[in-house]
Design brief:
- This protein has helices at 27-41, 47-60, 118-130, 135-140, 145-154, 165-168, 182-192, 212-219, 222-225, 237-244, 251-254, 268-277, 297-306, and strands spanning 7-8, 18-20, 64-66, 69-70, 73-76, 83-94, 102-112, 158-159, 196-200, 206-211, 261-262, 282-287, 290-296.
- The chain is α/β, with parallel strands linked by helices and 307 residues long.
- Strands 2, 3, 4, 5, 6 and 7 form a six-stranded mixed β-sheet that branches. A three-stranded mixed β-sheet has the order 11-12-13.
- β9 (196-200) and β10 form a beta hairpin.
- The longest helix has 15 residues, at 27-41.
- The mean pLDDT is 87.
Length: 307
């Protein structure tokens, strides 16, 4: 079921697939209970395979998208439509091994393998609705499956007809200021395992970017690249010299002002074109000049092929 027109998330909910006051010994048990409920009430699918896929996905990267909220999911062969099961737990289910602590709302989403963007469309609609002030608390307080259905029916949760940049972007893991020194840059790259860092001003407007390659260029000036005999610098003397000056070197001295930006409403398919055509590794999502998020090539591909 490709979502090529607006759909309301409530269309995919049924009281029989909702558990209020979910009791589970841990997150694996919670996933198993919700998958078993869908298997009992909905389309035929391999229950054990779905549970295993959801657990593997959770172990690889947490689906806790906000405090107290998890959206485990799997793509299922031969599934004809989106299936949803909801579990609410006032006491919480322990997701601490792979996420941010106890989770009070678990929404299991199964989508057809043939529709790779469908989960992300559902995620986009749910993120907007449950990100509203107080919304998640009201959902947790729902005492019955009927109350859960009423919660989602009360305010339309639209599944967008196609993905946009803001649906696939992530918050920047870190940002830099032009006044930051090289020591901070090196620390952020190493401690957060990053390849690129946006540079912003006090208002959050984009000023430029810094990449790992920029650090390498600082250490290896262009004239060294023309040297065939590198024996004079076998002990990385240029690197040592740069490190001696790491507190004096400022981001403004070596950042690049050329960067790729898109607005949040640009279709996500356009990002794929940019990654290929411009051989980009990171795209900045901006509103005016204000940085909203980043789309990294590796994360973009992971969302499309293994969301």
């Amino acid at each position: 079921m490709a979502v090529n027109q607006e759909h309301n998330f409530a269309e995919f909910l049924s009281e029989k697939n909702i558990v209020s006051g979910l009791r589970a010994k841990d997150w694996k048990d919670a996933i198993a209970q919700l998958a078993s409920l869908l298997h009992k009430n909905e389309d035929s699918f391999d229950r054990d395979a779905v549970i295993a896929a959801c657990i593997a996905r959770e172990e690889a990267a947490s689906t806790v998208i906000a405090p107290r909220l998890a959206l485990p999911h799997a793509r299922v062969d031969d599934l004809e439509r989106l299936l949803v099961a909801v579990g609410t737990s006032p006491d919480g289910v322990d997701f601490v091994a792979h996420a941010q602590g106890r989770v009070n709302v678990i929404i299991l989403i199964l989508t057809p393998t043939s529709d790779p963007g469908l989960y992300l469309q559902a995620l986009a609609g749910l993120t907007r609705r449950l990100g509203e002030p107080g919304a998640l608390g009201r959902l947790i307080d729902c005492k019955t499956p009927r109350h859960v259905c009423d919660f989602f029916a009360a305010k339309k949760v639209e599944l967008p007809p196609y993905l946009k940049a803001h649906d696939v972007m992530d918050r920047p893991a870190a940002t830099l200021r032009e006044s930051d020194d090289l020591e901070k840059v090196i620390h952020l790259f190493c401690s957060k395992n990053l390849l690129d860092l946006p540079v912003v001003d006090e208002e959050g407007d984009v000023r430029g970017t810094v990449s790992l390659e920029d650090l390498l260029r600082l250490s290896m000036p262009e004239h060294l690249l023309w040297m065939h005999d590198l024996s004079p610098i076998l002990h990385f003397e240029p690197f040592a010299d740069l490190l001696r000056r790491e507190k004096e070197s400022r981001v403004a001295d070596f950042m690049r002002e050329d960067h790729i930006t898109v607005s949040p409403d640009v279709p996500a398919i356009q990002l794929a074109k940019i990654f290929l055509a411009q051989q980009a590794r990171q795209i900045l999502v901006v509103e005016g000049r204000r940085l909203l998020g980043v789309v990294n090539f590796s994360a973009f591909m992971a969302k499309l092929f293994w969301a």
